[in-house]
Amino acid sequence: VKAVGLDPRNDFNVDQILTKTDAQNLIQLCVTRLLDTANPSLSTIKMQVYFDMNYANRAELLSEQHRLLEGRLAPVVRDITDSHPRVQEEMENVYRKIVSYMLLSSGLGSPTDIEVVREVTAALQSVFPQTEMITFISLSKKNKEQQLKNLAMLVTGIRLYNKECRRGGSSIDDLPAILNEAIPSATRTVDEGLNTCHTLAHRYTALLESMQEDQHRYTQLSSFKLKEALFNVRQYEAFLCILLSDAITSAQEVEKMNVRFAATMEQLKNTVQNKVSIDTKEVFPLFVALSNLWTGFQDEILLLSFLTNIANNLQQFSEIQSQLFPEEVLTSLLEGVTVKSDEERIRETMGTRVNVSDFKNQEWLFPETTDNFDQLLIQYHGFCAHAIGVKGLTLPGNPTIGILKHKERCYVFSSKEAAYIFAQDPDKFIQLNVEKAREHAELIQLLELRHQFEYLAPYAQARNAGKFFMKPTTKCDSSTQTDTHILPPTIVTSYEWNEWELRRKAIKLANLRRKLTRAMQTDLSHMRRENSTQVYLPKDVSTQTKRDNSSSVPRPQIFLEGLRGGSSPTTHMVKVDLTRAVDET
């Protein structure tokens, strides 16, 4: 539906509500396109949808696989950790469940094989005898789960060592040998598919170029859907490159693990030799290391099976190539046409380079001026940025010509001339590429144009810009929240409406009035209580509040004469001061 709506030839305005007529036209166009089984464009979109929904990288796939394994083992683990056996028979039953967990977690053998069960039981008893079940039961649930995992790794390591020494392990497959055979086979299959893709892409590109140069050939080949077929092949090629890269990574990991596994096994043999008793600190880490490496082999088997399955299923989406262009038809069309491979096109332009002085406001990147030149994120999946919109071709870009950095994005070109033309007005050609992706929706994923389609204006608005202008409606999710109770609560928690509850509380209070608390102490009990006291040691403290002082004053000596009277009727008193100074006394 999106592909039909984006196609400018259908004239849909995706930012407006469709009328009933538009909806009917959209349904009709979608049905017609789905029923067109001879259209490579539909096969390409189906291929893209299949790959997006089924492919996962190494980390995601292994994480999901480990999560599924833990989910399958969860009921067994829960049954073991939640059990609390009390009698001997119940403990033996739990021990058998632990043996089953060892088998299921390692994936080495079938739990229904008696020989395998005996082998696992013997390995488990050597590191965890039944006499230790009492200690195991007393652990917490988390510690039980951790000990189960540790025991599983030890038992797996012991079984692998016994297999190496030819003392058991007959049911264990030789995973390193299987991987050493399967990885090259899978890589050859993907390589063959890539070679077929390269051949078809080179032929289709040559035919499309001849159509643009010769009008007669254009009339002859216009009925063939060469561009759609080219895009289908290029997308198939891109997906196969991803799978091949994962297969190469898997091969490198297997090679490293083979070396480590052989070294660990040799170290374990030298440690054990023919000794009767060995310190667990020496051998247990080696058993755990063997178990982890074997788990890595199992993961690589899973990854290889996943990649092979994806590669096989992708083939059905490229079968339309043989239906549209049988070898006889393709050979006849290529008469008189020179077919160039991608490598030949790059070699032809190796000696050419953009002259930076010809551009004042453009930034060009070259290998000698850029440190991470090989790690730059190139737009359009490394195809020529000029040829896509102008010619509708996916020509390989040559970075040595010069990488144009425009608005923080990097672009490569198939020739120096294409680079000069694109650099004169990059935004114009970028828009041409977007329009080409609108016509061929499969280019959105092939050229990695998703980020540009987030800001695309509808084609009908851009075409009718002279008649009216309408700004796209901005939509966003918004939410608000108000307090349930703005004012502080005034609820009286002690309020009681139930009459019988009030009566119960009254009776309780009435009973408390008749309750007494008595205590006594006997000669035997008074010595049992603990008494403590604390004292403060005396200390000398002094303070001074005043000081003593003195001074001398003269002693007054005053005499009065005539107080007793005399012969005269009036009294005449005379005062005589005989006081002497202090220094005279």
3D structure, described in words:
The chain is mostly helical and 585 residues long. 56% of the residues lie in helices and 3% in strands. The protein is built from 22 helices and 5 strands. It has helices at 2-6, 20-35, 40-54, 58-81, 88-106, 114-127, 133-137, 141-164, 175-213, 215-221, 226-272, 280-314, 320-324, 327-333, 342-348, 385-391, 416-424, 426-439, 443-446, 450-453, 459-463, 499-513; strands spanning 363-365, 403-406, 409-411, 558-561, 574-577. A 3-stranded antiparallel β-sheet has the order 1-2-3, with no helix packed on it. A two-stranded antiparallel ribbon has the order 4-5. Strand 2 (403-406) and strand 3 form a beta hairpin. Helix 4 runs antiparallel to helix 5 (88-106) and helix 8 crosses helix 12. It is extended, with a radius of gyration of 49 Å. Residues 455-475 have low confidence and may be disordered.
